[in-house]
Amino acid sequence: MREGLEKLLASGQDNALLRFGLGNAFLREENHAAAAEHLSRAVEHNPQYSAAWKLLGKAWLALGERAKAESAWQQGMQAADANGDAQTAKEITVFLKRLHKEQPQ
Fold first, then answer.
1. For 32-89, how does the pLDDT look when each residue is reduced to its tens digit (9 = 90+)?
2. How many CB atoms lie within 10 A of CB 16?
3. Are the C-beta atoms of residues 31 and 64 closer than 8 Å to each other?
4. CB neighbours of 23 closer than 8 A, spacing ≥ 6?
């Protein structure tokens, strides 16, 4: 799947959905740096893409970038609220609670 998406990107296509797909694929492969890169581009294309913000936060957290993860999730929460995306808002709320609970002392 990732290879097909990369071919589309190489052919000149570039949009939020394509970048989301690539970010999601790299996240599943545990290539968190590549996931963060593509998901960052997804939200540049569409700042209201709450699911992309959610995954971007996961990628940043996996890279040890807690502040960037929190920022992504906060922006994702705003996008989810604006779009009426209750499920993503609920998931992000859980992620933020866990992040704050696990805050290093």
1. 999 999 999 999 999 999 999 999 999 999 999 999 999 999 999 999 999 999 999 9
2. 19
3. no
4. 34, 35, 36, 37, 38, 39, 42, 52, 55, 56, 59
DSSP per-residue codes, the chain = -HHHHHHHHHTT---HHHHHHHHHHHHHTT-HHHHHHHHHHHHHH-TT-HHHHHHHHHHHHHTT-HHHHHHHHHHHHHHHHHHT-HHHHHHHHHHHHHHHHT---
Whether the full predicted model's pTM is greater than 0.90, yes or no, is yes
Q: Which residue has the tokens 């990107």?
A: 9
Contact between 41 and 76 under an 8 Å Cβ cutoff? The reply is no
Do 38 and 22 form a contact (C-beta atoms < 8 A)? yes
